[in-house]
Structures are given as structure tokens and as C-alpha cells.
Design brief:
The protein has about 425 residues and is of the alpha/beta class. It is about 20% helix and about 35% strand. The protein folds into three domains: about 190 residues, FAD/NAD(P)-binding domain, CATH 3.50.50; about 130 residues, FAD/NAD(P)-binding domain, CATH 3.50.50.60; about 90 residues. It is built from eight helices and 30 strands. The strands form eight sheets. Strands 1, 2, 5, 6, 7, 8 and 20 form a seven-stranded mixed β-sheet that branches. Strands 11-18-12-13-14 form a five-stranded parallel β-sheet. α1 runs parallel beside α2 and α3 runs parallel beside α4.
């Protein structure tokens, strides 16, 4: 097996991996290698032809391919090496990366630092436990998006969508624009998991019904999907007898959540957060293994790619500091706790006394609540909000002076009336 050495290896050439590479290069790091399993850089953005990307990062509205191209161009301009069509199959605790490609076969890379940027995948039908047969015509929303936008193939003409995540909402509009009839978007929860702007622009603008607290309970058809039966669910998400209705359709799209691609993370023995399904990290996005960092959707699922790039830049710069042996003198040990109304935060621990931005999501739709950050009984920060929803990422900045004073112990973030 061929063995090579690299100072910084980035696993994943999507928006997170590219932004991390650019940030590391701009910090002066030159020995970088990006490994991407697809045939081109850009990741999932290559098939996201709708606009709405880049408002925070570039101050203008871009399509997914345009956003990806900007970062790919930055990589090309800096002459950062990358390998496409290359699958990483193993990550070891000593930062050894095992990969394979048609050009090189199976090879090992001994890395000084590793950035995990593998992205996420969609939850498939098999994970949902829907009764019925297995006919053609059932796709994850992202697969359908790839067929329509990159291959020019229409999955079907009469569509039901299960799940109101952003991909499902966007595909409701996309299928409609291509001539299909989207009969309903069903959502198990009593609220949508997507951005408010996507509900307005992708459903309301096209008179597509959103059925909250509904799910698919049966699938009909042998060779090809013929219909689905939907039903209303109670507060415990169980179908309510007598509320069933059958909708004729030839296509069912599943938009039922995204799962971080964390097989490599777990393989290396890195602790996984049970809520995010990503690695537990500190403010530098460093995992429990020194020199291994994580960013983007492999860490926690983002709603905006701009936040992915922002987080990836943090990881890229921190990886360079690690390679240089630049330890921060203001080392601390602070754990961030949540109250349940706030579902999770990233990072989960703080190890440096510097201004640190906490990303978090809430567990339900809340109106008129205050975001409250505490150290014990002391309130450090509070902010009144009009509305908080699980589909919208929120942020709050933890000040360096608070951390210097606290040094160790816990911070808690939650909601209050």
C-alpha cells in the first residue's frame, strides 16, 4: 500500500471542505490535500440550482452552483491540491487516512491534522417504517433533485412529498415548474422544518397545500407507485384512526431529515453528540482527538450554506494553529448545557477564553421568548425574540471576559418568558 505524508488533509470537497482549505491557505498553510469522492468539487451545491445562497457570505444572492464555483475558483487560484473520485474508507485515531481511487488504488496518508467535512445524507424510506409495497416512484428529495437538475429526468408527474424540510419545499416548487402536479406536502410535526421564506416562495406562491401533523401510513402499487394513504397524527405522532385519505400519485418524495455522514468520525473513536449526530467539538471545532477538526453538515445540519462556510473557516484556521503548535495561553474548561427548549448547541465545550459564537436550534416553535445565557444563577445575556423555530439556526456570542472570569464549570443556554 502506498504511503504519503501531508500536513493538512481535508475529507470532503463540498462547501465546508473548500472554505476550510481556503481559510487554511490564507493563514499561510501550503501543504494541503482535499479528498472528494465525487467527480468534481462543490458537493451538494452543484445540484441546487435555485438562488438564495451567499447573502451573508458574499452580500449577494447566488445559485448553488454559483456559490460552489466561487469557492472552487478560490481553490484553483491558490493552487490547493485536491483529488476527486477518491473515497476515504478509514480514519484512525493517529490521524492516518486510508483512501482509494482509480488512479492510485488503495493508499494511506499520514496527516498532521485532519478536517472532517463529509456533509450529510438523507434519511431513506427504510428508516421511516412506512407500510406497503416497494414500487418504483419513491425517492428522497435530494435524489429527485439530482435527476431533474443534473440529468434532465423527471421522476414523475403526480407527486406527494413527505416532510417539509427545505429540500422538500424546494422540490415542491421545482417539480411544479417542470409541469408536475404536487398534490400535498405532509409534515409529521405540527410545524414545518424548513425556512419561512421557503414555505412562502415554494408552497404558498404555487397554492401547494401543507398538511401539518400528517404522515404517510400506506403505499399502494406493485410495479409503480399508484397512490399513498395519509393520516393525521396525534400529539404523540401516532396516526389517528378514521382520518385516513388516499391520494392517487405516481411519485413520493421523502424529505424526512438529514443525517451527518459520521462513519469515519465514529471509526476514529471520536465521541458523537446524541442530538446533532455529529462530533462533540470545542470553539475551534476540534474533536476529542487533538488535530482532528469537524465542520459543516457532518458536524450539525445547517440551514444556510453561509454558516457552513463561516464554521469551516474557523476549523481551517484552527488546524493551522494546531500544526504550528500555537497553544492559547487562556485555556479554560467550560461545558455548554441546554434546557431542552434549546435543543443543542455547537460548540458543546469551550477551551479558549475568546469571543465564541454559539450556534443553536430550539426544539419547538416558540413565540415571545427570551434567549438567556447563564453562568450558574448569573444572567450573562438575554434577548427578546418574536419567534423561534426548529428550522432556523440561531446564534449568540459568548464574550471572552465572561469565559476568563468563569475559567471552568458550565454555561447554560435556554429560553424564558
Amino acid at each position: 500500500m502506498k504511503q504519503i505524508e501531508k500536513e493538512l488533509v481535508i475529507i470532503g470537497g463540498g462547501p465546508a471542505g473548500l472554505a476550510a482549505a481556503v481559510a487554511a491557505y490564507d493563514m499561510g498553510q501550503r501543504d494541503i490535500l482535499i479528498l472528494e469522492r465525487d467527480v468534481a468539487l462543490g458537493g451538494i451545491l452543484r445540484q441546487c440550482i435555485h438562488n438564495g445562497f451567499g447573502l451573508h457570505r458574499f452580500g449577494e444572492e447566488l445559485t448553488g452552483p454559483e456559490y460552489a464555483h466561487r469557492y472552487a475558483k478560490m481553490v484553483e487560484e491558490r493552487k490547493i491540491p485536491y483529488m476527486t473520485d477518491t473515497m476515504v474508507t478509514e480514519l484512525r485515531a493517529d490521524r492516518t487516512v486510508v483512501a482509494r481511487s482509480a488512479a492510485m488504488g488503495i493508499f494511506e496518508i499520514k496527516a498532521g491534522a485532519v478536517i472532517l467535512a463529509m456533509g450529510c445524507r438523507e434519511r431513506p424510506k427504510g428508516a421511516l417504517g412506512i407500510a406497503g409495497t416497494r414500487p418504483a416512484g419513491i425517492y428522497t428529495a435530494g435524489t429527485a433533485q439530482k435527476y431533474v437538475n443534473m440529468k434532465g429526468i423527471m421522476p414523475g408527474r403526480e407527486v406527494v412529498i413527505l416532510g417539509s424540510g427545505d429540500i422538500g419545499l424546494i422540490m415542491a416548487r421545482r417539480m411544479t415548474l417542470e409541469g408536475a402536479k404536487v398534490k400535498a406536502v405532509c409534515e409529521l410535526m405540527p410545524y414545518s422544518g424548513g425556512l419561512a421564506r421557503n414555505i412562502e416562495q415554494c408552497l404558498n406562491d404555487f397554492d401547494i397545500p401543507l398538511l401539518l401533523s400528517h404522515t404517510v401510513v400506506d403505499i399502494h402499487g406493485k410495479e409503480r407507485l399508484e397512490a399513498v394513504t395519509i393520516a393525521k397524527v396525534d400529539e404523540r405522532r401516532r396516526p389517528i384512526p378514521g382520518t385516513e385519505q388516499t391520494i392517487p400519485c405516481d411519485t413520493l418524495l421523502l424529505s424526512c431529515g438529514l443525517i451527518p455522514e459520521n462513519e469515519l468520525t465514529a471509526m476514529a473513536g471520536i465521541p458523537i453528540d446524541r442530538v446533532t449526530n455529529g462530533a462533540r467539538v470545542d470553539g475551534d471545532r476540534q474533536t476529542a482527538i487533538p488535530g482532528v477538526f469537524a465542520c459543516g453538515n457532518v458536524l450539525h445540519v445547517h440551514d444556510l450554506v453561509d454558516y457552513v462556510s463561516e464554521e469551516a473557516a474557523i476549523a481551517g484556521e484552527a488546524a493551522v494553529r494546531f500544526l504550528r503548535g500555537e497553544g492559547d495561553k487562556e485555556r479554560i474548561a467550560v461545558t455548554v448545557r441546554t434546557d431542552g427548549l434549546v435543543r443543542y448547541t455547537v460548540p458543546q465545550t469551550l477551551t479558549e477564553a475568546k469571543d465564541t459564537r454559539l450556534y443553536f436550534r430550539v426544539s419547538d416553535v416558540y413565540r415571545g421568548k427570551k434567549i438567556v445565557l447563564r453562568a450558574g444563577d448569573r444572567v450573562l445575556f438575554e434577548k427578546k425574540t418574536l419567534k423561534l423555530a426548529p428550522g432556523e439556526m440561531e446564534t449568540v456570542t459568548v464574550k471572552a471576559e465572561w469565559l476568563k472570569e468563569l475559567r471552568e464549570g458550565e454555561l447554560s443556554i435556554g429560553l424564558a418568558d
